[in-house]
Amino acid sequence: MCKRLSGKAAQNADLFELYSCLDLSTALKETTISE
Does 32 reside within a domain? Predict the structure, then answer.
């Protein structure tokens, strides 16, 4: 599911655009593990 964020989320599109097609839970976990 690739969704375009709107409203306040649009301001963070730079980051969310990368994860829009990914599972945010997985993305956040991998980010935490990477750090």
Answer: yes
**Which two three-digit tokens encode residue 14?**
């730079």
The count of structural domains within the chain is 1
Instruction: Evaluate whether residue 16 is within a structural domain.
Output: yes
Q: Are the beta carbons of 9 and 16 closer than 8 angstroms?
A: yes
Consecutive H or E run containing 30: helix 24-34
Q: Is residue 5 part of a domain?
A: no
Using a cut of 0.90, tell me whether the model's pTM lies above it.
Answer: no
What span, in angstroms and rounded, lies between the C-alpha atoms of 16 and 10?
A: 8
For 1-35, write each residue's pLDDT tens digit.
455 555 665 566 666 666 555 666 676 666 666 65
